[in-house]
Amino acid sequence: MKNKILWPVLFLCTLPIQAQQDMMEAEGSVTLQECLSRGLESNFSIRMVKNQQETAANNATRANAGMLPTVDLSASYSGDLGSTRTTPRSTNVTTTERRAYDGTVDAGIDLNWTVFDGFSVWTNYKQLQLLKEQGELQTRITIEDYVASLTAEYYNYIQEKIRLKNFRHAMSLSQERMRIVEVRYHIGNFSRLDYLQAKVDFNADSAQYMKQREVLNSSRIKLNELMANHDVTALIGIRDTAIDVNPDLQYDELWQATLATNASLLMADNHTEVVRADYKKIMSRDYPYVRLNAGYGYTLNRYELSSTKKRDNWGLNAGITIGFNLFDGKRKMQKRNAQLAIEYAELEREDLKLSLKSDLSDLWQAYRNNWQVMLMERQNLVAAQENYEYANLRYMKGDLSGFEMREAQQSLLDAEERLLVSEYDTKMCEISLLQLSGKVLTYLNE
């Protein structure tokens, strides 16, 4: 008796709970753009990479490149405490002075400036600007990865909700079938085998429904984590109820956009320029360097034994240094290594370009194939729905067995599942294509 009422009771208990949850989610429903907006403000990975970007921007200054002079203010005091013994030739009498103290005070301001060093300073500044751009590109890559991940999980959550709805519908159909069989079993129209089979099918559908609720909860937790919600179990109401696939993608446009705006490709270009700057810094050693120095100082000397009691001096001083490094034993090797580094960076960039084209071609083929499958599955679903309705009419008349009715019901559920999977797979291809072509941030403005 317990087994007979267990699953119906569970079914009746879970439906109000699910309905209440759906109502709570609907009251605070959000769009994809709202989810992305929240996440971009709070996600820890984005906040960390923005911190690194700000550090790179702070480093990109003329002073850090060595283009500005250095100014030092210094002061010192020194003393000499000692004894002196003197023997003049004229008298040959030795005179001793003990614990005589002489002191010196120095204070001044000094300026040093490398005016020219073979354009090395200017190359340093350019390299710092490139590293600043590199930080911006790294932030963009992180944001694009985040937008793609959150968008994918957003549509996965929609997929799981639709799947839960399909399982709930299948469970309600099985419950209705079991009710009909039970009534007719008691009046003798159906056998106990029909009743037991209907009960087994209902129990199986109920178990599948409950497992799907767990899957949906996991997707909701993942969404909360991506948006950096402290309460990862918080309910999320998704306004969208279907997986909307973009039908207007064009391969040539995607490839041209990839060449122009793909962040990884731009990062490779940036890295090549940084390596070329290293080569220019090595070449700068073939030029002379010019350095200026100037200062203003004050010196005070105090003497205890000398005929002069004290002497002080103050004034300006300036100088210029011109030099040329003739030989350091490693310049030729460093030039060759720098040239090899440039060649390596260029080859790495071309390899990345080829890899992006390969990935784009694979994703495009998958996108088009999944699109065709999706259109076909939509037609199959219509046919499966008509087949179920016809089977149900025959079943109600007693012209169809329980096994055949179950097969028609399962065919409907399978058609719904195949369509759902094809829609989701097509959407994932779309997201990946837009990410490769540097257009994934368009999800923020839709």
Automatic annotation (TrEMBL):
It comes from the Bacteria. Keywords: Cell outer membrane, Membrane, Signal, Transmembrane, Transmembrane beta strand, Transport. GO terms for cellular component: cell outer membrane; efflux pump complex. The keyword Transmembrane applies. One of its GO terms (molecular function) is porin activity. It is found in: Cell outer membrane. Residues 1-19 form the signal peptide. Its main location: membrane. SUPFAM superfamilies: Outer membrane efflux proteins (OEP). Belongs to the outer membrane factor (OMF) (TC 1.B.17) family. This is Outer membrane efflux protein. It comes from Paraprevotella xylaniphila YIT 11841.
